[in-house]
Amino acid sequence: QSALTQPASVSGSPGQSITISCTGTSSDIATSYYVSWYQQHPGKAPKLIIFDVTKRPSGVSTRFSGSKSGNTASLTISGLQAEDGADYYCSSSTSTNIPYVFGTGTRVTVL
Amino acid sequence: QVEIIQSGAEVKKPGASVKVSCKASGFTFTAYYLHWVRQAPGGGLEWVGWINPHTGGSNYSQNFQGRLTMTRDTSITTAYLELNGLRSDDTAIYFCARDWNDGAFDVWGQGTMVSVSS
Q1: For B18, how many CA atoms within 13 A lie in the half-sphere containing its CB?
Q2: Are A100 and B47 a contacting pair at CB < 8 A?
Q3: What span, in angstroms and rounded, lies between the C-alpha atoms of B59 and B88?
Q4: What is the number of alpha carbons within 13 Å of residue B103 lying toward its C-beta?
Q5: Which of B59, B95, B104 minimises the CB distance to A51?
């Protein structure tokens, strides 16, 4: 089971929208209801920002939204803010002998 | 409040074993699976395994080839990860996280740095 594929970096100016892709296979994202996204600032533990593909935990900004099409999940950050600069990881349940897999991670830079 | 506190950093030699603890508080310990996730220096997240604190059942990534054991002590709401035959590429921060909803890890420990070096 290989890691899900994410772009290494994405950047945007304050106020813009950016989208991070997360590409998997028919063994994970394409057939999973359980895709999550995490935000990680340097030296900190990851923070859950999206679960079940599109849902936001209580307290997470509505500027974060998730979607999925085929074997690719996406995270969109709208109205980009300075504090959104962080690493972002997707994860998915799988139908293989490794039940969960993370993405390779994307560094978001706010210009 | 709901929190997970992990044990402190460890420095080990190749071939040694390490045991990391994960103390849960503020929620019913036996109601949620606990997962372990590791992150090598400058690297991404890697799923390690889970333990069901209610039954003690567990499931590990096959990447660890039998070197891994997860246990728990319900009397002190603490889970443990033990990794044997340490190698230099086991050097990483090991996180413990609560599975709130089928792979949605909503509460994380602060992480435990395990360094393996001769």
Answers
A1: 25
A2: yes
A3: 24
A4: 24
A5: B104
Point out the residue among B63, B97, B103 whose CB comes nearest to the CB of A34: B103
CB atoms B103 and A45 under 8 Å: no
Distance CA(B35)–CA(B72), nearest Å, equals 12
pLDDT tens for each residue of chain B, 118 residues long: 999 999 999 999 999 999 999 999 999 999 999 999 999 999 999 999 999 999 999 999 999 989 999 999 999 999 999 999 999 999 999 999 999 988 999 999 999 999 999 9
Decide if pLDDT at A1 tops 80.
no
Tens digit of each residue's pLDDT (9 = 90 or more) over A45-93: 999 999 999 999 999 999 999 999 999 999 999 999 999 999 999 999 9
Amino acid B48 reads: V
Residues A84 and A110: beta-carbon distance below 8 Å: yes
Residue A95: CB atoms within 10 Å? 13
Nearest to A97 among B47, B62, B103 (CB): B62
Establish if B89 touches chain A: CB-CB under 8 angstroms. no
B104/A52 CB distance under 8 A? yes
In the structure encoding, which two tokens stand for residue B101, read together?
């909803």
